[in-house]
Amino acid sequence: MANYYHINESAARTAHEANHMSDYGKNSQTNEYRSYVDEAYAIGEERKKRYPEEAERIDYLCDLYARKLSEWYNENFRVEAMCPSILISGAGNFPTRKKAKQNARRESLMDKWKYIQSIRDRIARCGTDAIKSNDERAIEKLELKIERLTEAQETMKAVNAYYRKNKTLDGCPDLTEEQTAKLKEAMSSGWHYEDKPFASYQLTNNGAEIRRLKERLAKLKEIKEAGTQEHSEEEVGIEGLTVVENTEAMRIQLIFDDKPDEETRALLKSYGFRWSPRFTAWQRNLNDNGKWAAKKVIQLLKKRAEEAEQ
After folding, report:
1. 75, 92 in Cβ contact below 8 A?
2. Which of 67, 99, 222, 297 is the most exposed, having the fewest neighbouring CB atoms within 10 Å of its CB?
3. Which residues pair with 254 in a beta bridge?
4. Which pLDDT score, from 0 to 100, does residue 95 have?
């Protein structure tokens, strides 16, 4: 189910009235926002069916998309209300400086819009672009990906600096002739608002991805170095339940001596655990969220057992 964030309908109405002669449709911006969010979540659900191991990442990206999009809408309302359209205010004493400031903020908002839509693109790629934590070469692949993205970041900065100094891409030592031609074509298109080859959002997105991958790499190395940890039923505190932090499979596993009852199975599923016939265990990804989910399930199972004894 989609997670919607607040859309300021009052601000939306004010922005509409500053730019349009027509009446504002009740909840129209909320409905538009939700249609975008529904589309992103629909893409996410389709990817989760094909790649269930990516469910946690997909849920995070869908929520991030919904939150960032709501922030964009509400900020956009404020910008659109800054200065009325000339059709609304008339030409006399039109605040040209305020309009110029408004247009500059519109360009900034366009970059944010592109970044937000790139989140939806990441959702659509989940499962095909992911480096699986249980891949025996996961650490090597992450290091190579970080190296590649870091190199791309430095190239984008160098190309932007060359253009800023020379006001042309011709002769740029960091680009091939083909790359130069493609960038020139992109810069001449209507959607390219900034006077530089690589837009701010491209550098921001790439930098954020590098930081995310570095954090993941550090955690993965820490988990791998710790090795597989097995917690007996005495440690767990629930008879017939063993918890295994399997660093080879990169899964946290809840192993029951007997088949859990329907209520327990529903609880496990609600916290993202899935049955693995291979390991005869209920499991999910071995990461901070997975460990937290395991603790919550154990707490609730203990609480239920205590209530049954009373």
Report:
1. no
2. 222
3. 243, 282
4. 61
Q: Return the closest-CA partner of residue 263 out of 291, 209, 305.
A: 305
Sign of the four-CA dihedral 149, 154, 156, 159: negative
Interatomic CA distance for residues 89 and 83, integer angstroms: 9
Distance from C-alpha of 151 to C-alpha of 4, rounded to nearest angstrom: 37
> What distance in Å separates the CA atoms of residue 284 and residue 32, rounded to the nearest whole number?
35
- Which structure tokens are listed for 175? 């680009």
- Please choose, from the candidates 216, 55, 59, the residue with its C-alpha nearest in 3D space to the C-alpha of residue 127: 55
Q: So what's the pLDDT on residue 277? A: 92
Cα(100)–Cα(69) distance, rounded to whole angstroms? 25
Residue 36 contacts residue 44 (beta carbons within 8 Å) = no
Average confidence score pLDDT of the chain: 88
- pLDDT higher than 60, residue 210: yes
- How much is the pLDDT for 159? 96
How far is residue 280's CA from residue 275's CA, in Å, rounded to a whole number? 7
CA distances (Å), 141 to each of 93, 157, 248, in order?
A: 61, 24, 16
Tens of pLDDT, residue by residue over 159-190, are 999 999 999 999 999 988 889 999 999 888 77
Tokens of 53: 């191991």
Inter-axis angle of helices 28-50 and 96-125, to 10 degrees?
20
Do 19 and 84 contact (CB within 8 A), yes or no?
yes
Residue 91 has pLDDT above 60, yes or no: no
pLDDT of amino acid 108:
81
All residues at 6 or more sequence positions from 279 whose CB lies less than 8 Å from its CB, including other chains: 246, 249, 251, 253, 255
